[in-house]
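RETRY 2/3 - previous attempt timed out on the joint model. Re-submitting the same 1161-residue input unchanged.
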Amino acid sequence: MSTTKMRRLLDRISLAFIARRLLWGIPVLLAVVVVSFTVLRFAPGGPFDREKPLPPTIMKGLRAQYKLDRPILPVYTTEPADTPRGKELAAFEKEYSVISAGPIRITTSPAGAADTQLFAYLGQLLSGDLGVSMKYTEVNVNDILRATFPVSLKLGAVAFFLTYGIGVLLGVIAARFRGTWIDAGTMVVATLGFSMPNFVLGAFLILIFSLWMRLLPPALWEGPAYVILPALTLALGPATYVARLTRSGVLDAMDEEYIRTARAKGLSERRVLIKHALANALGPLITVSGPLLATLVTGSFIVEQVFAIPGMGRYFITAVIDRDYPTVMGVTLVYAALIVLANIVVDVLYAVADPRVEE
Amino acid sequence: MTTAVRDTTPAEPTLPTTFWGRVWYRLRRDRFAMTGMFIVAGAALLALLAPLIAPYGEGIQDPGALLQGPSVAHPFGTDQLGRDLFSRVLFGARVSMVVALLTSVIAVALGTALGAVSGWLGGRIDNILMRIVDVLYSFPDLLLIIIISVLVGQGVFGITLSLSLVSWVTVARVVRGEVLSIKQRPFVEAARAMGYPGSMILVRHVLPHTVGPVIVTLTFRIPAVILAESTLSFIGLGLQPPASSWGVLASHGWSAMTFYPHLILFPSLAIFITILGFNLLGDGLRDAMSK
Amino acid sequence: MTTGCERDASKQATLRVALPGQPTTFDPNKAYDAISGQVLTQLHEGLTRHDRNLTIQPALAESWKFNPSYTEITFTLKPGMKWSDGEPIVAGDFEYSWKRLLDPGTRAEYAYFLYDIEGAEAYNSEKGTRDNVGVNAIDERTLHVKLNRPAPYFPHIASFMVTYPVREDLIKQHGDRWTDPDKVAVSGPFRPVEYLQDYRMVLEPNPHYGLGEVRMKRVELYQIAEKSTALNLFVAGRMDLVLDMLPLAIPQMKSQPTYYNGPKLEVRYVGYRIDKPPMDNAAVRKALAMAIDRDELPSVLKGGEIGTRTWLPPGMFGHAEDVGLAHDPEKARALLAQAGYPKGEGFPEVLLLYRAGDDWRLIAENLQQQWKRELGITIRIEVREQKVFFQEIDGESPPPMHLARWVADFPDPENFMGLFKSNSGNNSLGIKSEGFDQRVDRAVQTDDRGQRKNLYDEAQRVLLEEEVAMAPLYVNAQNHLRDPNLGGLEFNAMGDLFLGPVYWKSEEASR
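RETRY 2/3 succeeded.
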């Protein structure tokens, strides 16, 4: 790419464009917070439903402490899972005005919207406080994320590079030897990574590299050697996807006029393949890269679980299962913010890679 | 080799005239694709005929034959409750196939429709649709899956519903990207200049170009759904008894793979071969359509 | 497999333990889960503790004395006991701790544990005051407790984690953060030096510990939720002790010296909702209970579980082998016919609810098959996530049947029997039987073990044979993996873990 061309491209991606996209991210995040907050609160089962039921006074105290005894939304139309029942309900209805019409219930609290759980949470968020976990009742969610996010980030980043390294290599090889057994063989090998659930793949890798060959640790998070197996487990599945995208992008290009021209000009097959055909595959590869990175960083629940890694991904599942609302909201927020950022980066890269797309 | 066949294609005198005719013609000559098709058809047939082929009834437990390795009586061995694993894999095929196919078709249909409309129309509608997609995309799938599983239960219907709801977004993004890119091509501009209505250009000229990526996406959706479903089982949110898919069997067997490898081996093999079949078929279809 | 010899000298005195999950709190008063307990027993001491035979032994208390009617108990603390920061451990630390446990503001799940103390329930349920709670530190070494009913089992209660002493000054100073490794003062063999949430806690010996020599220089408590991961780490020589091992691996590990199997005071059972049709028919409940072959479940689960038809588990006082409905398919079929469902005809598809988890699923699937086989009836089994399960069980429309368990908090029948009293907060079966309540209450008022046992036998008969509120299934077992070179490691049926006395045998030899 020549420097003038580069400059022209950079001109296209103005700061204003990026700023506008970042501003767009705010309503998206807000929507994610509101929707997941609501969905979560309306899900049956609560954080303090335990095997041995808590005595009513304790339950009441906890609900008050975490503001769970307030209406969830300023207005809602169905009964929330944690609306008090029986006697408590009567008291609740006296305090809050509840208008019922069949299955539709509209509740407004006496103190107005600010008194609802949603707005209390949003207010808290504005001050940067994610709240105290409802499972680890002495631990702030900010602290949990501060400790666990860097771990997931590191694991995800390593997995990301592995994904593209393995994927592009396999894809180009398969395309180069299109229709031959090398193509088929490469794709079968690639499929192997994709056709096994993560937990099975991880277990196989542990079996081979830790228990038989004794090369790598089977779990834990103590240093660089501990990153390899989990990152590989995470990467092999998406690598297959990248391989296929690469292969199909390259193959598409091979049939295009300009490649034929390039070939006719006597360029070597390797040069054609890498310089022109691969460039054609870049678009889709970039499109998936952002979400992929975000998914690799946050979506590593299974891998973190199987390898006992102290990352953030595990909380996606455990916190939801425990109905640990603040923690779920915290990881959701981080996840959503990452996705939003990743999409902006993708759009920018896309504009660079494919000048035909107008922003 | 297929390349050779394709290179001589223009010379073939009997090339079918319809689009699908040509696709089928090329597909028949692609031995990988045909292998894939046989695998997929075979898996479908086994699933359909499971009650006839399975040596033991669905869910029959034999307390006298717990955790046995493969034998003549139990070709794939037995599980913790003394159920014949071969029969379970056969019955599991039905559930896996139904969930995977239904989910993929719903997700791809929904995703293609919205992605294409969004990419084609652009402007405000695109912006609104894409912001909705952004929100859904940034929304943790698991929350949605749990809510649905609670509302409709962790059966085939519930899992299909929740998995399709969380997977159409990806398809929509891919299709939109394709449409955006095709929209800028000279032939579309030419069609516009000739005064064809937009909807007609979209359906007749743009969408066919997205068939390739959509087919690739579809062949990837099916394995992805099979995997997602087994991941859910691993977490404990997957299909629940009596329904049991390959994913369920694999997730029940994985932890003891060093001790009872048959528990994980056979369901995993079933998953692997089937996914391979779909991939080979998908590749073949793509190749056959793209030219 | 690792041995002491492979270990390099610097690691000689390090112990690496895999706990089966995450502790939720390090605040003794607020603790409720077993894993928090496994950590807390390393950090703290109670007045008493259980030995390997579950006999109560003095810990921080030197002795205790009841009044003749078992309504007052006075503990005398050992002299010279110190916190890890060198402060003396005084009776006031217990008084503060127990009142803090009962303080409704603490919101402790296990506050009810001290409800036998006068004024405790009232204070905890916001009907009384702190000053009226019958716990008083008379002097630095004397703790006087007034009970509201005879409680001869009270020394057992004083061994439980929620009754460990805590430091008022530290809690006042640091609030919720007082349990951080750099702030906390502990009374047990180890003190925490490092904690990484959901990963690992590192312990070092408490320099002021006065209840015996602590041999390990460093203990690493890893929190590994996935059982097969813990197993892999053990096999790879990276763990010395794995608690609660993978059940599926048991048959293969059984013959190895690393395998430990022992009893556990945990009973799993089918709970009937006796006010819900068709379970409101005692004949139906009896038929279902008698159709179950209790030996099938242990053979499926493979962890050394013991099939049982009685409620009080073996190893606990009051256990009686011949109580409860025996396996009798013939009789079960007859009873079902008598209830109006000959050969199971017309029997509705009753729901059996269970919670997420492999073991629960296996039980449910096995029972479904057994009932189908013996009675010709089809039971619907459904799973719920833990939280939803707990909510439904105690909710407004509980399922007709559910799978449940009870894990002993203290090894006395009162803990098991009290569960099904009409006024029990943990009673999820809807059983309200005066005959049962009276016998259980009378049993704690007597000192005569023979009479007490008779009362419990009778109460169990009411529960299991007359009311048939539930069908016990099996007594659970403990399955651990440990390096055979570890000495001083003992488990009791409560699952208590004491790492204080643990040492490496090879280290011993090299001395």
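Residues 358-375 of chain C form the longest helix (18 residues). Closing ticket.
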